[in-house]
Design brief:
The protein has 17 helices and no strands. With 405 residues, the protein is mostly helical. The chain is globular. It holds the Pfam family MFS_1.
């Protein structure tokens, strides 16, 4: 993909935003053991707060995306950086489950809605030529994986070296780096070809656009598949360290596993974005969900060793966020770029409902049964259903919505 210098700066800035935003949150699973031990919580208490984070993120995402569509990403990203830093800092004072749900749940959930894919992609699809969009989104999604690869071992090292409370304060300062990155994305948004100005109430426009999109069977099936994506990745991301610890494996193995997921996802998301430029995206999505079910099944049935964990992490990592550029690419094919921020946020809400259930059920069923087995097998079943849901999706433009490609 060729690119001029402004476009390269845009992709660098967008990638850095996603690297920081996604990278920090991927290490939250390491705070589960020390925080639950310090405050005497059950795992469900911690899991509920992170589940709420994902749910708030999903609920707020259509609105953050719509604001970026209408007014540009600058102020949205600035608000997200402030909320992220505040949420991390207030986690250190969250001595009860209610306070943790407010800081790690509500504040960081709102922050993520302002600093992740829907807002960033709303700029990229306007600034990048149609033939390169899928690859550009793949590169940006890969940056989120790079953030996981870099930040996960850093967070574990901070907890081991400083303790969980100072580690959160260091991460709060790191989240503040999101603030200066708002400027280059806002500049790219203003330089992109102008689209028709949206008139009238934002809420009414969101309602009308979503109603038209909901009439499309492909949109509904895409939402169903993304629900499963959220369930799978957040359950694994949050509960895998505790699962490995329960089975006698060290924290180093868990840290390596999450880092490998991030490392291999760099390649997976880029490959998915590249393939999405020339091959049917729904077929690729169906293949990804099917492969996830196969990988999880093999992991459950194989003896649990550091080598099996590493192989699982590498395979799952390659499939981790590869759904992101493909799902957003289908949305652009269906509806164009005018409302991508909002519609991407609407589909992402389904993803986050799945995320909430994945992380919460993981904690709840563990507390009730003493095992994660039921949730592991549920991820397998849901993956098969998601593969079947994506096969009928069609990438045919919808004239009533796709007024600008």
């Amino acid at each position: 993909m060729t690119a001029n210098r402004p476009l390269m700066f845009l992709l660098l800035a967008a990638g850095t935003v996603v690297t920081l935003s996604m990278g920090i949150r991927h290490g939250f699973g390491f705070f589960l053991p020390p925080m639950t031990q310090s405050f005497g919580w059950t795992r469900e208490t911690f899991a509920f707060a992170l589940g709420l984070q994902n749910l708030v993120w999903g609920l707020a995402q259509p609105f953050s995306g719509a604001l970026a569509d209408r007014h540009g990403p600058g102020r949205v990203l600035l608000a997200g950086g402030v909320l992220y830093a505040a949420g991390l800092a207030l986690m250190t004072l969250s001595s009860s489950g209610v306070l943790l749900s407010g800081s790690a749940g509500v504040l960081i959930g709102l922050a993520l809605s302002c600093t992740t894919y829907s807002v960033v992609f709303s700029v990229i699809v306007r600034a990048v030529a149609p033939e390169f969009r899928s690859r550009a989104m793949g590169l940006t999604a890969a940056a989120g994986s790079f953030g996981q690869f870099i930040m996960v071992p850093i967070e574990r090292g901070l907890i081991d070296g400083l303790g969980w409370m100072p580690a959160l304060l260091v991460l709060a300062v790191t989240a503040g780096l999101l603030l200066p990155l708002a400027a280059p994305l806002e500049k790219a948004y203003r330089r992109a070809p102008a689209l028709p100005v949206l008139q009238g109430s934002m809420l009414r426009g969101m309602r009308d656009t979503f109603a038209m999109a909901w009439q499309q069977r492909s949109f509904r099936l895409l939402m169903a598949g993304y629900f499963v994506c959220g369930f799978q990745v957040v359950f694994v991301g949050v509960h895998l360290p505790a699962y490995l610890r329960d089975h006698g494996l060290s924290g180093e193995v868990a840290s390596l596993a999450l880092a490998l997921i991030g490392l291999f996802n760099i390649g997976g998301t880029y490959v998915a974005g590249h393939l999405g430029s020339s091959r049917p995206k729904p077929m690729l999505l169906a293949g990804i969900y099917l492969l996830r079910s196969i990988v999880v099944t093999a992991f459950i049935l194989a003896p649990l060793t550091p080598w099996s964990v590493a192989l699982f992490a590498a395979a799952m990592g390659f499939l981790w966020l590869s759904t992101v550029p493909l799902t957003n690419g289908v949305l652009v094919s269906l509806f164009g770029v005018r409302h991508l921020g909002m519609l991407s946020g609407a589909v992402f809400f389904s993803h986050q409902v799945g995320s909430f259930l994945g992380v919460w059920l993981g904690g709840l069923l563990y507390d009730r049964t003493g095992s994660y087995d039921v949730v592991w097998w549920l991820t397998v079943l849901l993956g098969l259903l998601a593969a079947a849901a994506n096969l009928p999706v069609r990438e045919q433009p919808v004239p009533a919505v796709a007024t600008q490609s």
